[in-house]
Design brief:
heterodimer; A: 5-stranded mixed sheet; 17 helices; 5 strands; 62% helix; elongated; B: alpha/beta; Rossmann fold; Alpha-Beta Plaits; 2 domains; 4-stranded antiparallel sheet; 37% helix
Chain lengths: 422, 324
Amino acid sequence: MGLRRDRAALALSFILPIGFFSIFAVIFGGRHDTMPKVSVLLVDEDQSHASRQLVQGLQREGSLSISLRPASDKKGAAPLPEYTAATAEAAVKAGDAPVALIIPRGFGQNPISFGRGNSTQAIQLLNDSSDAIAPQMVSGLLQKAAMTAMPETMAEQGMKYTGEYIGGLTPEQVKRMNANLDQMRQFESSRDSAAASPASDASDSGGLIAVHSRAVVGENKRNPMISFYAAAIGVMFLLFTASNSAGVLLDEVESGTLDRVLSSRVTMTTLLAGKLAYNTLLAFTQLTVMFLWAWAVFKLDFFPHIPGFLVMGLCTAFAVATFGMLLASICHTRAQLGALSTLLILTMSSIGGSMFPRFLMPAAMQKVGLFTINAWAIDGFTKVFWRDLPVRELWPQVSVLLAVGIVLFALARRIARRWEIA
Amino acid sequence: MNAQITPDISPQSSSILIESIALEADSLVKRFGQVTAVNGVSLELRAGECLGLLGPNGAGKSTLIRCIVGRVIPDAGRVAVFGFSASSSEARAALGWVPQELALYPRLTCRENLAAFGSYHGLSGSKLKESVAWCLDWAALTDRAGELAKNLSGGMKRRLNMAAGIIHRPRVVLMDEPTVGVDPQSRNRIFEMIEALRGEGAAIIYTTHYMEEAERLCDRVAIIDHGRIIASGASEELVRIAFASRSQVLARLAGPPGDIGAFVERHAGQLVDGVAEFTIEHSTQIAGLLDDTARAGLELVDITLRRPNLESVFLHLTGRELRD
């Protein structure tokens, strides 16, 4: 009966499962063309015919997003210089992309290894080990691109190895082979001028191109994903704790305690500020306990990162505390708060990366995720614990979380006016 | 009927009068949509005085109290506490409010509750400790100081609720039906607390719909109905003005309802819950009533002679009982 009378709570209890189902349907059941592309930074040091063909082949891959140079900050600005091996590695370390491919000088002279790869000419695959899927995917697609994008090189190299291992072809065979190679080159030229299209369905031959993989982020981490999940799960439960803790305000309204408090010298602003301070401290303590647990049980490298943890922990705690207070000020009953907070927190957590990494989501969903506290908090903690970046590099996350907190608190204060006087 | 009985304020020089006025409400009006909960109420409370606000449920007592304490903004009128506006920090410090609801933190102990409300009023350190100890003693809760509020009995919760309202030792205390739902023993204990508070010199406004409470505790009584004060003064004075030396006769009659109605009308009485009530100047008039009962063919089941009280005044003024 209570739920029937509380129509908002009743409505939310039906909206909650539908809304949540829809989010997962969008993430996991979306159309194929909305599936995530893996960002790859590509450096062609060789600039040979073969390496350019390989670059073009990789660019044609529908599931890869190839960047040869950083995107300009402003529209119409002059393009930035192309990535070098050093800048591409720095970009992977900074989290701009999970993978960088570096085609070294001399690659075009001997692009196919046939199992005896020359390490100086092997393509360098630099990856961020927090994303276990991207390097595997890029590595496979690299082999595929080599097979489909450089057919004449493959054939040419095949002839070379044939001559090397079985004593060569007859002049007539060489003549025919060269004629075929010319046809293939013409075909490649015409294909290059056409619009890019997904590569053919040629099977992945794996291993023809020598690839040397190297994790440039997290290579020394004892337990790679612990810091990610400590932050991801921590933020989600922080949000629940904060909304529940802020719900005390509704209890005070119901019991008349709030009226009594406001009849004293305490004003609504002072009261809310006091609750904000308490809830922030509570959330920060919860986060600290969680990370200490991760350190004690899962060997998280906690103590060297304390400055970054303090900054991110306090900013995150502040933002989630204001979020809880806003929800409590919007709702009229605990039941409404319970339903609304569950809906919003699960939604934020799913699209903000608390349940699974955002880099696995479609590009559009990754952008939507930036509207959540979870995404910014997780990004900040990842910078601290995963990328070992200095505290000053946290400024985007800190700025956003503080700004979000200030705006949410101002809104909560505005809405709480309804309790001040009748 | 709308009799206005002038408050019994003794003539004094204006400066002394201003000093002695602890609280003054002037022409307060509060509307909630179409309902006028408080309709032009004016009242004065002198320092050390206990004023009873007597009225049935829904008469506007609580809204008036909430207007005074600043929790409801009146549509018209003003409130001054020792000359300060009700919203001023001076007024807030001088006012103590005991709401009708048990406005406590159930998961805090008695001591913690008092300390919390004390700190909201700006108390701290040894001053807060002393005040908490005084309040626990005043409410006879010293031995339950460490008990969670939710585990207390109903009467104890009421006492703690009162103590939380006076933790900052206010000079004016507004008590909104503090005895609602308590047993007679706890009620007596609460009366003793209020009397002790008066002994400390606090001015009190005490709302109730129990006539006996108003008569026992209050120097003056203001009768409120439909948001208006319809009479105010010392309870004996209200009775004297309304009834002079008259008494009331309460008679339970048996017979045809039409005959009973005609009989009551003939003697200018009224039927309240099946009991015929008559006002008589002299006790000798009872004999006449008895004779006429027999002549009207009615059977007299029982008869009571009663001196009028505040309940009678309320009935006399409104035609309704206090607990309607």
